Every structure is written in structure tokens, then in C-alpha cells.
């Protein structure tokens, strides 16, 4: 009899095209639509926030804004009580922008729930003007943050 290797917690969170699935959500009654399945607007709000945090870390700038979200493919629904996880991957570092790909899947079955091929965030200054970030590769650390946000002096 051959043993089948089970994915470890760590490998399971990195197995879609090198994507990291950092955030998990528990689908609750307030997240549902009238059909009793996950409301698309809730999911998009979560993804937008997740992408903002990812962009802040990658661009080393607390001021980032959503510029573009490409076609959104809701591939399967989620139900109350489901555990879902969101994954993001930087696909292009522009001069002032960052382009990411997003996936959402059921944490247990791994069934894909949503896919977005292109989410573009732009790093801006205090006036909302795009500023160059100077980065070309993904960081897996918090090394780009200039200083703790909201630091009390
Ligand atoms: C984001 C914003 C500052 C960009 O201003 P802009 O005048 O378009 O700036 P630029 O033309 O210099 O473009 C900035 C970057 O966005 C990219 N960009 C602009 N339009 C784009 C589009 N339609 N698709 C993809 N990228 C785009 C540019 O390529 C550029 O990237 P790069 O510097 O990496 O090459 C401005 O459009 C804005 O404030 N939008 C509202 C943002 C917001 O409030 N988001 C929340 C929505 S509720």
C-alpha cells in the first residue's frame, strides 16, 4: 500500500501559481444575499481590502488607491458557515502602480470561488498624486514600510 502525502498547512497556503493565501473568512449571515449564498459585494470588499494591504507592503507606502479591477469571475458560490481564503500575487510592478492577480477558494475543498486577473493599485503622495515606488520584485517581509503607521511621537 502506498501512502499519499497530505499537503501540510504551509504547502497548502502556497499551491496556486505561487500565490499566498493569507486571509481566511468565515461566511456569516450578514454576508449573504437573498438566495442564502455569499453576497458578491461582501466578497469584493474583502478582496479590495486584502489587495490594499498587499499593495501597502509591496510598495512601502501607506497611501495606495484602487485604480482598476478587471473582469471578475464568480466561479462558485459559498454558503453560510463556509471557510474561505483569499490569495493575491503581484504580477507587474509599474513605475507608480502594482498589478495583482486574485483568487478566492473554499479552504476545505479548495474549490475556486472567484478569480480576478488584474487588480491595479497606485501609490500616491499626501495630495493623491501618483509617486514612483522604485520596486520591481515581490517582498515576503515587511522590510519596505518606512515607519509604523500612526506612530505616536
Ligand atoms: C489612481 C489615480 C491617482 C491615478 O491618476 P492618473 O492621473 O491616472 O495617474 P497616471 O496617469 O500617472 O497613472 C498612474 C498609474 O496608473 C496606471 N493606470 C492609469 N490608468 C490605468 C488603467 N485604466 N488601467 C491600468 N493602469 C492604469 C498608469 O499606467 C500608471 O502606472 P505606472 O506609473 O506604474 O506606469 C487617479 O486616477 C485616482 O485618484 N483615481 C481614484 C482612486 C480611488 O479613489 N480609488 C478608490 C475607488 S472608490
From TrEMBL:
Residues 17-127 form the HotDog ACOT-type domain. It comes from the Bacteria. GO terms for molecular function: hydrolase activity. Its EC number is 3.1.2.-. This is Acyl-CoA thioesterase YciA. InterPro entries: Cytosol_ACT, HOTDOG_ACOT, HotDog_dom_sf, Thioestr_dom. Keywords: Hydrolase. Gene3D superfamilies: Hotdog Thioesterase (3.10.129.10). It comes from Brevibacterium epidermidis.
